[in-house]
Amino acid sequence: MGEAARYESELVVKNDLAVVAEVRRFVRLVTGQWGLDDFVPCLVASELVTNALRYAAASDDDVTFRIGRTDDGALWLEVQDATCDLPRIQRADAVSEAGRGLFIVDQLARCWGVRPLSGNAGKVVFAVLDPS
Fold first, then answer.
1. Using an 8 Å Cβ cutoff, are 99 and 90 in contact?
2. Element (H, E) at 70
3. Which of 104, 59, 103 lies closest to 81 in space, CA to CA?
4. Is 30 strand, coil or helix?
């Protein structure tokens, strides 16, 4: 794929869904420094972190969020957690309050995917967003 992040900022968050607002503030700060709109990056970051906290992290596991730029100026977002369970796009019904996270990421990102960590230490879920 050839889209490695050039520089990045990192935020380690505790397993508490309340930290998703902290992640959005972090994304606003970083994207603001780069002169980028923050709406889509905040939405995608929220979905990636929420999925990691809800489905992939044990109650005492931290989740690491990273944000960077690719060589062509795109935004690189990734979340690292300690499980090897692969995320999947779910089919949500019209009244469901959950299950749309990866669908949203899939619709807004140039691409997204999963990288396993060596030694079954977990995975990284990433999304690449075109600059706006």
1. yes
2. strand 63-70
3. 59
4. helix
Q: Is 39 helix (H, G, I), strand (E, B) or coil?
A: helix
Q: What would the two tokens of residue 118 be?
A: 């060596």
- Tens-place pLDDT, residues 26-48: 999 999 999 999 999 999 999 99
Looking up tokens 């970083």 gives 30
Alpha carbon distance 120, 123 (integer Å):
8
Name all domains of the chain by residue range, CATH numbers in brackets: 5-129 (3.30.565.10)
CB burial of residue 24 (10 Å; 0-12, 13-18, 19+): middle
Tell me which H or E stretch contains 21. helix 20-33
Classified as helix, coil or strand, 60 is coil
- Residues 90-130 pLDDT 10s: 776 656 666 678 888 999 999 999 999 999 889 999 999 99
State the pTM of this model: 0.87
